[in-house]
Structure formats: structure tokens, C-alpha cells
Amino acid sequence: LGKQDTIKLFEHHRGQWDKLTSGVLGVLNWDDFPWPVFKRPNGPDDVTTPCITAYMLSALHPADKSPKDRIKDNIRRWHPDRFETQLLPKVKESDRDIVREAAGTVVRVLNDLL
Fold it and tell me: Which helix (H) or strand (E) holds 59?
């Protein structure tokens, strides 16, 4: 991705989190989640440590937060205690297992980045 496309992706992901947490989306599926990777993942196998690391440590993120604070914010979003009680029940049953698996990968990688 070029610089402008990367910045747009970060903005889109921020907006997507707002939609997820406000409940305006109703029933959720895999594609509703702003997975923290640059290339749209097709499944949990595309949500990898190198991809998440590159995304989270990108210098193109807005400068309103340090990388450490950004990682902590994302850990709170993806942490199983919150994610599995607030968002996972809204995911359609056929996508629930793959969403749970990928979300688990995300939070493990984020914890390792701290």
C-alpha cells in the first residue's frame, strides 16, 4: 500500500471500530472486523505475527498516540474478556470460530509487542 492508502486504511479501521462498538451493524461476520493487518485477510491463517507487527508499528499511524499506547488500546479491544462477551455473541454462527481464532492471535501478538 502507498502512504495515502495506508492512512485511509487506518481511518477506515478506526471508523469500523466505532460501528462495531455502537452496535449499528447488527449481526457481524468476518469482514466486519478491522483486522490489524494491511492486506484484507481471508481467514485466520492471514492474520500473522509479521503482518500484525508491521501494521501496529507503522510510522503512518496518526501521531496522537505512542506505539505503546496504540498497542495497549488494541489489546483492550481484542482481549477475550471484552471481545468474547461484547462482540463475539453478535457474530453469525458460521463465522464465530474463525473470528475467535484470529482475535486470539491478534491479542497474543499485541501482548508480545509490549
Answer: none
Q: Which of 59, 61, 53, 46 is nearest to 9 (CA)?
A: 61
Name the pTM for this structure: 0.93
What is the three-class DSSP state of 91?
Answer: strand
Cβ atoms 47, 104 nearer than 8 A: no
Plot region of 26 (φ>0 → left; ψ -120 to 50 → alpha; else → beta): left
The HSE-up count of residue 9 (CA atoms within 13 Å, CB side) is 18
pLDDT digits (tens, 9 = 90+) for 72-99: 999 999 999 999 999 999 999 999 999 9
- Residue listed under C-alpha cell 462477551: 85
- Tell me if 23 sits within 8 A of 7, measured CB to CB: no
d(CA 25, CA 96): 16
Instruction: Give the single-character DSSP code of 111.
Output: H
